[in-house]
Amino acid sequence: MDIIIIGFGTIGKGLAEVLYKKREYLKKNFGEFRVVGIADSSGAIYNKEGIDLKKAIDVKEKTKKIINYNDAEKLSIFELIEKEADVAVEVTPSNLETGEPAKTHIIESFKNDKHVVTANKGPLALFYNELIKTAEKYNKIFRFEATVGGAMPIINLAKENLAGNEILSIRGILNGTTNYILTKMEEENVDFETALKEAQELGYAESNPSQDIDGLDTAAKIVILANSIMNLNKTIKDVKIKGITKITPESLFLANKKGYTIKLIGEVNKKYLIVEPMLIPKYSPLNVKGTLNVAMFETDLAKEVVVVGRGAGKEETNSALLSDLISIYNRVNNSTK
Amino acid sequence: MDIIIIGFGTIGKGLAEVLYKKREYLKKNFGEFRVVGIADSSGAIYNKEGIDLKKAIDVKEKTKKIINYNDAEKLSIFELIEKEADVAVEVTPSNLETGEPAKTHIIESFKNDKHVVTANKGPLALFYNELIKTAEKYNKIFRFEATVGGAMPIINLAKENLAGNEILSIRGILNGTTNYILTKMEEENVDFETALKEAQELGYAESNPSQDIDGLDTAAKIVILANSIMNLNKTIKDVKIKGITKITPESLFLANKKGYTIKLIGEVNKKYLIVEPMLIPKYSPLNVKGTLNVAMFETDLAKEVVVVGRGAGKEETNSALLSDLISIYNRVNNSTK
């Protein structure tokens, strides 16, 4: 299966690393996953015989620009999207205001006869229906497990493993940064600013952490779940959002005394979408610590199903991208596996 | 998609009920799932235009014998397996000593050009490789999510949502009966016999509970996970098994004092397969209560992933059967969903 990777930052390069490291394993268990094109902000490269991933990673790390890779045709991102390949992996930085440039990359990929896998929340939180309809129109597969919960299976879990169930609600912790901060505040009795600073030092929070701590990141994920799993037609504007900046160590202490903890919970049901700090019983499966993510589905047949996993991290996100690529491979090759 | 149901007890009849209740929902979201044949110990019925499920359920409940259903050809189970249909659902009672009659039903179904979905642990715990090879030989899909963990996604979760990950180990609570008993003993300080009796009265334990409390049921499930997820080649004889009959309220009390609980854990890794009561930290995600099941995967990319769900129950088991049927439907119809 021939792949182009659009976006070659932490995630895109991480995917190349995983595809390189696991090439024997993948070939033995599934088939050949060949990267024929890579794009970053410097431009794009294409070689229909395959890109040497080790060399591409090396060039990117040393020169910051994939365009410095030799042994390939140099072209623009959109020229790359027009080239022959089976799947486009869209992993440019996420923009929750415009969804671009990812949205255009995805749409153009469908139009140019490519299945799409993405980790990009922006276009899905803003233009879900348009993207799905375009995929359907061109009869292409569109998968985006990595957009929510990192390595924690959630979208495909609900759509496939729980297929046939009606999903009545989904609630959970979908942002590892805020969970890290709240866990820290609770366990070490420190205030919000101190916990945030430590999260930033450890690389768990960005230098501008507002999308995480204000709840926007969780809201985008809740919208993706609402649309993809519950067939609602929502955007971020439909979510009532409240972040964690007002939470104090005292409120956590008081909650604790009564057998509760406080978590930033995203929830979607048939009536509303909400993101806010909620009291959670200490023994609830939703009380997971550190940077972990968790989701609880309420369904008609299976009743409650809970899943816990790592919400972020380079390898963890690539676990989701890779499972989506393998799913497409099996589907395209009509595997009975 | 045309289905035959082999076995029309709690599970088989439950599946018919779900397919009947959800017929509009399934048709709208996926396609038509038509039952054309049903077999129980009285014999089999077949109608290529479809069985009236409401009537079939009614006949079974009133007369105990599906053979009393009119409007269909009456035949033997093996004659039914030879008839035209896309999928056979094998849900006769499980036998952990011989795997029969399910094993033969499954093999014959593959030979007669049918995909197979089963909830039957016996044949999979005893003859995994033979069954898989037969499915491959006849190019048929074989799915068995319902054999382990009921409505808790586990087999397909590991093989699909975590595809590309190497699964290093799996450990968890795979038997709701023993979890109910241990939870009861811990929370109400009652002895094993008392807790077992209550579990029996509530229908959580069978009148002969030995397969559950001696660990054999968990062992069969661990073998299925070892073979299907970790590509090992094991049978029940490879599992070191210890049940929960020796656990006392005192041992639970002492464990509790130190911050632990005791659970019957099944575990498989590359070195061994084991089922035994283990000390679990109270705050571990493995400490789930009542009849819940839980599994923790350790993987190379996604690291730890935990899933919690209901391990038993008529609707819960049918959640797993139904998701397997839908997966086959989508595959056969080359859906891009």
Low-confidence stretches of chain A: none
How confident is the prediction overall: mean pLDDT of chain A? 96
Q: What is the chains' assembly state?
A: homodimer
Q: Estimate what percentage of residues of chain A fall within beta strands.
A: 15-25%
Number of strands of chain A: 13
Specify Rg of chain A, calculated over alpha carbons.
Answer: 20 Å
Taking the sheet with the most strands of chain A, its summary is: 7 strands, mixed
Give the topology string of chain A: H per helix, E per strand: EHHEEHEHEHEHEHEHHHHEHEEEEH
Distance between the amino and carboxyl termini of chain A: 17 Å
In helices, the fraction of residues of chain A equals: 40-55%
Shape of chain A: globular
Major beta sheet, strand line-up of chain A:
4-3-2-1-5-6-7
Largest interface here, residues on each chain? Answer: A-B, 56 and 56 residues
Give me the number of helical elements of chain A. Answer: 13
Description:
The structure is a homodimer of 337-residue chains. Chain A is α/β, with parallel strands linked by helices. Chain A is built from 13 helices and 13 strands. In chain A, strand 10 and strand 11 form a beta hairpin. The first copy, chain A, starts with a strand and ends in a 5-residue tail after the last helix. The mean pLDDT of chain A is 96. Chains A and B meet through helix 7, strand 13 and helix 13 of A and helix 7, strand 13 and helix 13 of B. Strand 13 of chain A pairs antiparallel with strand 13 of chain B.
Key features of this structure:
7-stranded mixed sheet, 337 residues, 13 helices, 13 strands, globular, 6-stranded mixed sheet, homodimer, alpha/beta
